[in-house]
Amino acid sequence: MFPKIISLDGFFLPTYGFLIAVGFVLALWVTGNLARRSNLDPERVKNLGIYSAIVGLVGAKLLMFLVDFEYYRDNPGELFSLSTLQAAGVFYGGLIAALVFAFYYMRAHKLPVAITLDAFAPGLALGQAFGRLGCFAAGCCWGEVCQRPWAVTFTNTDAKDLTGVPLHVPLHPTQLYESGMAFLIFGLCWRAFHRPHRPGFVIGLYLLTAATARFAVEFFRYHHQPNPFGGPLSTAQWFSLAFAALSLLFFIRKPATQSA
User: Fold this and answer.
1) Total domain count for the chain?
2) Which DSSP letter does residue 11 get?
3) Residue 69: what pLDDT?
4) Could you give the CA distance from residue 1 to residue 160 in angstroms, rounded to a whole number?
5) Domain containing 38: what range?
6) Does 259 have pLDDT greater than 80?
């Protein structure tokens, strides 16, 4: 839609990267404030956020390579292409990698796991919301053909070159669907955090609602790779079911096991 903020002599500032950066800074600021309210060391929690983001980027890329293994196997030069470097990867790959690292970091630094993750939950949703706005600006993660009044039509050739989005075709704005739901999830998690709650409830709420939102949006999203197992569900939908199941563990866990 508008993939480049500035373009000069071959250099350009991508709108996607800019919005990701904005979302990350805001998410980190929100998390630091919530950590302080939870009597956690805000600097240590912010460091966890920064390290987890780096690990998450690597995890997202790795899962992208695994999901599209046949493509990268047949086109190994694409592993280091500009489009691959600019691609964010698969969200769930990043979330899994970040969570695994976060558990290791929290135990190493004696941070209470459930309370710390609760402080992260609203920021995760906020960062995700801005990330999907970035997807919409770049043209990636587009939807199936749509004949509804709210369909969007991409016309920017830069978006086509960068992401492969089809031009002059009305599509479901799946990026906006997910961004809007992520903003709503941010509001729900923010409200839940500021109300009396058991440790782990807010992160459980985030995982459940984010997984549900992604599961629903996937039905309207274009997929260039076949669904796994030959069934009706996409790879992201299987991951959504797994994270929805994981969220239940935070709802039913006993108070005695809440600390690291």
Assistant:
1) 1
2) E
3) 62
4) 9
5) 4-257
6) no
